[in-house]
Amino acid sequence: MHAVSLPRGADAVGKMVADIDWALLRVELRAIRRDGAEVEHPGQDWIFSAGDILLVVGKPRRLEKVEAKLLHG
Fold first, then answer.
1. Rounded CA gap, 1 and 29, in Å?
2. Taking a C-beta distance cutoff of 8 angstroms, is the pair 28, 3 a contact?
3. Other C-beta atoms within 10 Å of 52: how many?
4. What distance in Å separates the CA atoms of residue 49 and residue 64, rounded to the nearest whole number?
5. Integer Rg of the chain from CA
6. Number of H helices, E strands in the chain
7. Tens of pLDDT along 10-65?
8. Contact (CB, 8 A) for 63 and 26
9. Kind and range of the H or E element at 66?
10. Residues of 3-42 as b/e, b for ≥16 C-beta within 10 angstroms?
11. What is this structure's pTM?
């Protein structure tokens, strides 16, 4: 499992879970931590905010790619 923290200005901020093609990236979004609370398997309509921590599962190279996509597009 890999944690990706979304800083202000990250490409994913303001996007919904459904906007990311998790299947194409071949990773699974397992949970999101926001303000000390953890939401497992967030819905497709969840909107990412700065400060969110995404818990993602996948192979190391795929995790690197998804982190780059979430942060930089």
1. 10
2. no
3. 22
4. 20
5. 11
6. 2, 4
7. 999 999 999 999 999 999 999 999 999 999 999 999 999 999 999 999 999 999 99
8. no
9. helix 60-72
10. ebebeeebebbebebeebeeeebebebbbbebeeeeeeeb
11. 0.95
